[in-house]
Amino acid sequence: MNYRERMRGLREDNDLTQSQVAKILNKSQQGYNHIETGRAELKIEDLIKLCDFYNVSADYFIGRKQK
Questions:
Q1: CA–CA gap between residue 42 and residue 53 (Å, rounded)
Q2: Would you say residue 67 has pLDDT above 90?
Q3: Hey, what domains does the chain have and what are their CATH numbers?
Q4: What burial class does residue 50 get, using C-beta atoms within 10 Å of its C-beta: 0-12 exposed, 13-18 middle, 19+ buried?
Q5: What is the pLDDT of residues 29-66, one digit of tens each?
Q6: Model confidence pTM above 0.85
Q7: What is the rounded CA–CA span in Å between residue 33 and residue 60?
C-alpha cells in the first residue's frame, strides 16, 4: 500500500471529508485532493501533521510497517 492509499484509508476510516483534512494542513480541498490522487507530492511537514492527527507513525503512514 502506498502513502496515498493509506492517506485516503485513514481519512475514510475516520469519516472525514477531504475538506476537513485539508483544513488541518492549511490547504484547499483541491490542494489536498491533488496530494491524495498523485498530482502533487506530500510535503514532510504535512506528513508530520497527518501522523500527529491520526496518531500513527511515519513508517506506518508511508507503508514501511503495519499498525
A1: 15
A2: no
A3: 3-61 (1.10.260.40)
A4: buried
A5: 999 999 999 999 999 999 999 999 999 999 999 999 88
A6: yes
A7: 21
